[in-house]
Design brief:
CATH superfamily of chain B: MetI-like
Number of helices of chain B: 8
Keywords (chain B): Membrane, Transmembrane, Transmembrane helix, Transport
Distance between the termini of chain B: 48 Å
Helix content of chain B: over 70%
CATH class of chain B: Mainly Alpha
Largest interface: A-B, 27 and 19 residues
Radius of gyration of chain A: 25 Å
Order of helices and strands of chain B: HHHHHHHH
Strand content of chain B: under 5%
Structural class of chain A: alpha/beta
Bound molecules: adenosine-5'-diphosphate, magnesium ion
Family (chain B): Belongs to the binding-protein-dependent transport system permease family.
Pfam families (chain B): BPD_transp_1 (PF00528)
Distance between the termini of chain A: 30 Å
InterPro entries (chain B): ABC_transp_perm/SBD, MetI-like, MetI-like_sf
Strand content of chain A: 15-25%
CATH topology of the largest domain in chain A: Rossmann fold
Shape of chain A: globular
Subcellular location (chain B): Cell membrane
Oligomer: heterodimer
Chain lengths: 371, 216
């Protein structure tokens, strides 16, 4: 548990970066500080490990005030991950990861063993162990940065925009992997981001800050979407709030009925396609029944080739949120959303009207439980 | 060229070569040892930095001959004592290397320093295991300049009679005899190239982490 008790920071001159911040980041949970640029997120974060000294107020780790601790000892207890990883250029990947364990007094051999284990944990093969940071991509460096923070097995972690310096595809991967990792390790984490989507996707608790470093709202992602505290928060979350709510678990329970979908394979003749088709569009799958795309019966002239396929439809994995199911239905040229199992095999399709009914059912269910 | 002369004098020339080597290298080593703490101080303290680096720059503008002649008065040494040359060249090396060390420490990426602080490094361990290793490429570049320029400044000491290759020049001039002059030039260039290569080699060995550096 990390507690902010009326913490303020004034920089020389008149800048108030953080203004009487009081909040608690609960143990084992991921708390996200989010807000527009310059609202004091980084300042707040760095006051926790005293890279910045608060002007007033106190910060406590599990109830123990940080201002009386030896600063190096305090910092060794807290994992820290920054935007560009900040790896040591002169040390190999394994040596970099082992650093925090070594600082906490772990013998060298054991620290390197931990480093090799963590390398796999963050999704890098052991072939990377003896490379230097410049030989890694940005996303790989970021993974090493996370592994380094974890090597001393700290109870607390601070992360400042850890995923924002990489491209969107890699960012998505890193976020998913990190969620999986946190499910196992259950650290008490404060992460800073300016990206509300990232905050809603990753946070157990979201802290919205406004310019001037004051607290706007502390809530779970669902609460934030359903009941923003004021205009500032509502504006900051953005226009697609209603649609985003579909991404949360409570909506995933309302099942959408699956329809059976006949499939063709590549090489099928136009006559075969017409026999299979229930309307203009036929779903094409590979030999393991994994969907490849949709074929337009009216425009296929010879045996079906890759180039004939319409690839616009997204796939929803069975059991994923209604947001993904709705997206699959909306993006499919046939209007039928493709649902696949965990290993990518076709389960069936859903129609837009069935999805709409499921949303409606979930919505009334949710409204019904409101006081 | 009179090779028979070279052959006859080879013992003495070898001795002068070794003197030249020692007078070039020892001051740079001492200069570096002094420049490390001073450069570190200069890099840390903003106001101190400009003062210290300014003073170091001034030292470098004192003509070497003046220094060779003045030092016996300051140090109380005899005019022919090679110690005068060692001290003078140490002053030059120091003047050059203080800036080099300070620039080298300055070249360490702020991200890396911040990460080291955040992990709980204390100041001195951070200096020795993070900052200095990363400053090696810049410091090595400065060392190369210091060594090579020392090789050429040493020969000026021939004017006060200190043994080193410069004596071959004065001797050649007095005897109106070209062979010792050519031999002196060739050996000086050889020595400079040798020392330069040595520093380069050592730096490469110390920085296997650099892109394009030694094999991993
Ligand atoms: N070292 C500093 N000196 C003066 N002002 C600063 C300093 N660091 C940050 N600030 C100011 O404090 C405010 C908050 O900064 P920061 O915490 O970095 O914001 P964020 O991380 O939310 O973008 C900004 O207005 C910024 O300009
Ligand atoms: Mg910031």
């Amino acid at each position: 548990m990390i507690t902010f008790d009326a913490v303020s920071k004034h920089y020389r001159g008149q800048t108030v970066a953080v203004d009487k911040l009081s909040l608690t980041a609960p143990s084992g949970k991921l708390t996200i500080f989010v807000g527009p640029s310059g609202c004091g997120k980084t300042t707040s974060l760095r006051m926790v490990n005293r890279l910045i000294a608060p002007s007033s107020g106190r910060i406590l780790l599990d109830g123990e005030p940080t201002d009386t601790m030896d600063v190096a000892v305090l910092r060794r207890k807290i994992g820290y991950v920054i935007q560009n990883a900040g790896l040591f250029p002169h040390r190999t990947v394994a040596q970099n990861i082992a650093t925090t364990a070594r600082l906490n007094g772990t013998p060298k051999d054991q620290a390197l063993r931990i480093a090799h284990e963590l390398l796999e944990r963050v999704g890098l093969s052991s072939a990377f162990a003896n490379r230097y940071p410049w030989q890694l991509s940005g996303g790989q460096q970021q993974r090493v940065g996370v592994a380094r923070a974890l090597a001393s097995d700290p109870k607390f972690m601070l992360m400042d925009e850890p995923f924002s310096a990489v491209d969107p595809v890699v960012r998505g991967q890193l976020q998913d992997e990190f969620l999986r990792l946190q499910r196992d390790i259950g650290k008490t984490i404060i992460m800073v981001t300016h990206d509300i989507d990232e905050a809603l996707k990753l946070g157990d608790q979201v802290v919205v800050l406004r310019t001037g470093g004051t607290l706007a709202q502390v809530a779970t992602p669902q609460e934030l979407l359903a009941r923003p505290a004021d205009d500032f928060v509502a504006d900051f979350i953005g226009r697609d709030r209603g649609y985003r709510v579909l991404g949360f678990a409570e909506f995933a329970k309302g099942g959408v009925p699956l329809g059976a979908e006949p499939t063709a394979t590549l090489g099928a003749t136009p006559e075969t396609l017409r026999q299979i088709a229930t309307d203009r569009w036929v779903l094409v799958a590979d030999s393991m029944n994994r969907p490849l795309g949709w074929a337009d019966v009216d425009s296929v002239k010879g045996p079906l080739r890759d180039g004939d396929l319409n690839l616009s439809g997204t796939l929803a994995v069975e059991g994923s949120s209604l947001r993904h199911v709705l997206d699959a239905a909306l993006s499919s040229p046939s209007g039928r959303g493709v649902i696949v199992g965990q290993s990518g095999e076709l389960m069936g399709t859903v129609t837009l009207s069935h999805v709409a009914e499921a949303i409606e059912a979930a919505r009334t269910g949710r409204m019904g439980t409101q006081p | 060229m009179r090779f028979d002369w070279l052959y006859r004098e080879s013992g003495r020339i070898a001795e002068l070569f070794l003197w030249h080597l020692g007078l070039s290298v020892i001051p740079v080593v001492i200069g570096l040892l002094l420049a490390l703490p001073l450069g570190w101080l200069a890099q840390r303290a903003g106001f101190f930095r400009s003062t210290l680096l300014g003073a170091a720059g001034l030292l470098y503008t004192i003509p070497s001959l003046a220094l060779f002649v003045l030092l016996p008065l300051v140090l109380g040494t005899r005019i022919l004592d090679p110690m005068n040359v060692v001290v003078a060249l140490t002053v030059y090396a120091l003047a050059l290397l203080v800036r080099t060390v300070s620039d080298g420490l300055e070249s360490v990426p702020p991200d890396v320093i911040q990460a080291a602080n955040a992990m709980g490094y204390r100041r001195l361990p951070r200096l020795f295991v993070v900052e200095l290793p990363l400053a090696v490429p810049v410091i090595a570049a400065g060392l190369r300049v210091a060594v090579v320029s020392n090789v050429s400044i040493v020969s000026v000491a021939a004017l006060i009679g200190t043994p080193q290759l410069g004596l071959l020049f004065t001797q050649g001039l007095q005897l109106r005899f070209l062979t010792p002059i050519i031999a002196g030039i060739v050996l000086c260039v050889l020595l400079a190239a040798l020392l330069d290569g040595l520093v380069l080699f050592a730096a490469k060995r110390m920085t296997p982490w650099q892109p394009g550096g030694a094999e991993r």
